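Ticket #4471: structure export looks truncated?
Reporter: QA, pipeline team
Priority: medium

Steps to reproduce: submit the single chain below to the structure queue and open the exported record.
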Amino acid sequence: MKAIAVLACSIALPAAALNHEDVVQPIAAGPFTVACSNIEMDLGRLAALGGSASDYWEGNPYPDGSERYITDILVHPDAAFHFARQPPNKFSLYPTTFFRTLPFVALICHPTPASNPDADYVLPDAGGTVPHMQPAYAPPKLLSNAEYLQTLGISTSPAPPPGPW
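Actual output as written to the record:
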């Protein structure tokens, strides 16, 4: 009977790891205005392919079992920061991706001038926003040395050189 219990537990552990997730409460907002890279989603394509935006962010498979990923619904997939990496070789945590190289899309956020005119982007079905989302193919608007120091209440003499920090 103990052998059956051990076998049942060892089978259940990988299944429990399929949907693991840690939730960390955010810290208080900092003193800087924040801007982020472009991840604009094509809502028409999303509707045609089916599913929710979260299905694509999470990599949930299509009903036929084929893989889906956020790059399937981005308006400008080549303007997004994407790369391929192999998840850690820990079968107990990543049973379906063991020894596979997977695509990743990164949302990169950084301090930006308070005067940044780029609009916030409302995420479909997630309820959140991407602050001051950078237009596709545009360079990021970076905080200047002077605004960085001024925001932190630091005065310098002589003044810092112009340009991004």
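Status: closed, not a bug. The export was complete when the record was re-opened. Leaving a note from the reviewer for reference: Helices lie at 2-17, 43-49, 53-58, 145-151.
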